[in-house]
Design goal:
heterodimer, A: about 425 residues, mainly alpha, B: about 170 residues
């Protein structure tokens, strides 16, 4: 029965049936042959989505698009450029910081990379960065940024495995910062070696104008990151406050967004949410079928028969997710794989918050890994360079990220430090 | 056929916008009341969840129309038009089975729960459950109108990058 389930699922995927419907249809087939009522699908679909923390998903997507279209992101980037643009590679570093904040804000790597890349890549090209380096910087920063909240993948992971979203967000912060700092160091090195352009130092007047213009926008990261890290807000609360503040800034303060632009933004938010949630809704039946067939238990037993050392399992997870991540979006991969993997992690006493960060970091890396990484394709498309040309400049960035991934995987303290400060018992 | 599909999408889209705004307003009001210690709305959590489920599944149905759902495409992109037309048909028939279950079993669930009241809003549970058959019907409708409309160019999906809608470089 389990083989029938996976056979159908993989077969449907290959036939280009959407992931959500491959999950639904393969579950239906097993329900039918196993003599279960098909009503399970309709009921589980509803109950699977009936959870308050999921509301953070549309709210973060909405906040993100308000920031992009309302000129909030642009002001933050402009201020940072005025501050560090005169350092060689300074703009590249600004791009890293800006990108980590905005990546994984929509649950779709295509939408994210398009939104971030279309601001950052032309900004770098305009200042005479080579297009291949610009693509590599945005792609690598996107992979690191999947760890810095807000992060849709983590919200989904948290709900699938019953871990607190707040602790998971807090846990992602240090590993994400570690990755971002290593990338910035690498950019500084490349900038020295290849002579990336530097801007003339901004005058004090320019700095004052940029700062004055950007002051209201700075509360946005404070609300989202500060609210979550200090434990004042839950993820959903900080998301909704960010929406209201973002709407206030872009409609009333900066007036870059007209009220008649709103329906398109709302509609797009709902579609992106629907895209993630349809996978979640269908997967609840799939997971239920897996459990009735005792697949997680059997898989755990099989894993233990190979090795009972957590590091062997983690290494296998690293490799598996790197492969899956190159052709499947992070959110979808979490929904499909977690019901199978987290029971094993639990059995091996791997902390589930730590495991979540490992999984997220891994899938983020998959998104930009040549030859298939979806985000790499989109970024190359924006810069109008063929993907093949980006692979070579991409290699040092990949090396840095893989090294960081291995450190994050095998030194759990790095991830668990901040959540423990906030009272996480693990 | 295109007009019909556009009209249905317009209505569903309008509903979705209203639901999303309503969810934002309710959750924000709740946060505001709590942090100002003005008490709380007992029904806010439940109302927000129901609005969210309706919005998500209607949004998912609109996503079916635009072909944006996560799909692994590299094989279907590599085959000639004739074969791809076959793949599109297989996907449409397969998905339709799932949608039919959503419609039929979802509807039975709606009827079955007519008298069941939700804990906080005191509203018949049929109202939230109705989203399953309704979104299933919309997905079925959009799947087949797409198949017919895109028959000449099977497997049409939106370009990954819609350059007209993207923001600009920072000066």
């Amino acid at each position: 029965m389990a083989i029938l389930l996976f056979g159908c699922f993989l077969g449907l995927l290959v036939l280009a049936v959407p992931i959500a419907l491959s999950l639904g249809l393969s579950s239906l087939i097993v329900l039918f042959f196993g003599g279960f009522p098909s009503a399970v699908l309709a009921q589980k679909m509803f109950t699977g989505l009936d959870s308050f923390p999921f509301l953070a998903v549309p709210f973060f997507i909405l906040a993100g698009s308000l920031m992009e279209t309302g000129g909030i992101s642009a002001r933050l980037v402009r201020l940072a450029t005025v501050m560090v643009g005169h350092i060689r590679g300074g703009l590249g570093m600004v791009v890293v910081v800006a990108t980590i904040f905005f990546s994984d804000i929509s649950g779709s790597s295509v939408a994210d990379t398009a939104a971030i890349g279309s601001i950052m890549i032309p900004t770098m090209l305009k200042r005479r960065y080579p297009p291949t380096i610009a693509v590599a910087i945005v792609a690598a920063a996107g992979a690191a940024g999947i760890l810095i909240p807000p992060c849709i993948t983590m919200i989904i992971y948290a709900l699938v495995t019953n871990v607190s979203v707040g602790y998971l967000f807090a846990a992602g912060f240090v590993p994400g910062a570690l990755m971002a700092l290593s990338l910035m160091a690498l950019i500084y090195y490349i900038a020295r070696r290849d002579g990336l352009p530097a801007e003339p130092r901004a005058t004090f007047a320019e700095f004052r104008i940029a700062l004055w213009d950007a002051i209201p926008t700075m509360f946005m990261p404070v609300i989202i990151l500060g609210g979550i890290l200090s434990g004042v807000f839950t993820a959903t609360e900080s998301a909704v406050v960010a929406v209201v503040y973002g709407a206030f800034l872009s409609l009333i303060v900066y007036r870059e967004l007209r009220p008649r632009d709103l329906p398109a933004i709302l509609l797009n938010t709902a579609k992106l949410t629907g895209m993630v949630m349809l996978v979640v809704g269908m997967s609840t039946t799939f997971a239920w079928v897996l459990t009735t067939q005792q697949v997680p238990q059997n898989l755990t037993a099989w894993m233990l028969s190979i090795s009972d050392r957590p590091w062997v399992f983690l290494l296998m997870v690293n490799v598996l997710l790197l492969i899956v991540g190159t052709f499947m979006d992070a959110t979808a991969a979490v929904v499909v794989l977690m019901p199978l993997l987290y029971p094993i992690a639990q059995h091996m006493h791997i902390d589930l918050v730590h495991f979540g960060i490992v999984i997220t970091a891994n899938l983020g890396l998959g998104l930009i890994h040549p030859p298939l990484g979806i985000a790499l394709f989109i970024a190359s498309g924006i810069a109008k360079v063929p993907v093949e040309k980006v692979i070579k400049p991409m290699l040092p960035f990949l090396a840095v990220l893989i090294a960081a991934l291995l450190i994050i995987t095998y030194v759990p303290v790095i991830t668990l430090f901040v959540p423990r400060l906030l009272g996480y018992p693990g | 056929m295109k007009k019909l599909s556009d009209a249905v999408a317009f209505v569903a889209g309008a509903v979705v916008c209203v639901l999303l705004v309503a969810a934002c307003v309710i959750v924000f009001t709740e946060v505001l009341l709590r942090y100002l210690s003005l008490g709380s709305l007992a029904w806010a959590d439940e109302a927000a969840r129901f609005l969210f489920i309706w919005m998500s599944l209607l949004g998912a149905a609109l996503g079916v129309r635009e072909g944006i759902h996560f799909t692994i495409n590299f094989i279907s992109d590599a085959v000639p038009n004739q074969v791809r037309r076959g793949l599109v048909l297989i996907a449409a028939v397969g998905s339709s089975l799932v949608y039919l279950v959503m419609i039929v079993e979802g509807w039975r669930f709606v009827i079955f729960n007519q008298t069941q009241l939700s804990p906080a809003l005191d509203m018949s549970m049929s109202v939230p459950y109705l989203v399953v058959p309704v979104s299933g019907a919309l997905m079925l409708f959009f799947t087949w109108t797409n198949v017919v409309m895109n028959w000449k160019h099977p497997g049409m999906r939106p370009p990954l990058l819609d350059e007209s809608s993207l923001p600009n470089a920072v000066e």
